[in-house]
Amino acid sequence: MKLEDMIMVVENRKGTETNYLMNLTDYMGEALKLWGEYAEDMAGVVSTLYRTKEDKKDWSDLYISANKSIHASFCGGESQLREFLSGHFNDGEWSFDAERCSKECLDVLRIYNLKTDGHSLFPYLHHERVEHSFHVGEVLHNMNGNNYRVLAALSPKDLLVMGMTDSQIIVGRGVQLFERYPKGERPDSDSTVTGIEWDHGVYLGNDITRIDFDILKQEYGEPDRVGNVADLRDKIQRNFWMQKNVEQKEGLPDRVRNAAKDCLENTFGTNDPDVFVKMLDNGMYDGMYHAKEEQKKISGQSR
Length: 303
What we know:
This protein is of the alpha+beta class. The protein is built from nine helices and 13 strands.
């Protein structure tokens, strides 16, 4: 059974709440038992429940009587499961009833190294490193319970990622992929959790517009590899815009912006992006940076 197929259930009886975990079959049977002769159409109930899986609804609410109700949601991840086990979603008096849990759900807790109170079973799990090339766009599960989307692979082990729940942008240093499964057991698709761990993270906030990606590339990335003319032109274009961004950045002293403008003129023969692109496409930087005469042919008099 997968973590995302597990249903978190909160039953409320006269203000006292009981938490437990169920598979879909057991949940439907539990709902029918609670409703008795007033059972509604189960297709509608299941449809409402599946909206929690699609992030269209937090919880499905079923009211049996004035003082009896059940609230359920498909588990959205390890972090949410820990919160559920620790009573984060409860109001007032509550308890967790392991006896009412589906057996498969208790197996999931064991696989994820969790006790029914949300604490870890450490050191019950075995970690095995997996060779992996990280790529932009993939979603990685961190063994701390959070999920991250890769925004950039700055180097093979340094990733720029964004938290899926809070949009926090982080540079993960020393990222490695692992398979984790209970010690002493034969790993299989149900018992193995695949996720990352990193040496430490550099937290950059959640406003992507305030992040200088050129600085990140210099600080954590690998040197650009130039294997052909296309690679060379890509590198030249990045260098141009690195300096152009300094020239245009508001809030910098005029002397700094003017220095960036002079550097563009001296290095590329122009600070005009349109002129630069024409010169780049015509191969005028393939063997050298300074191309004053060629610039004049394209743009007329020097600017």
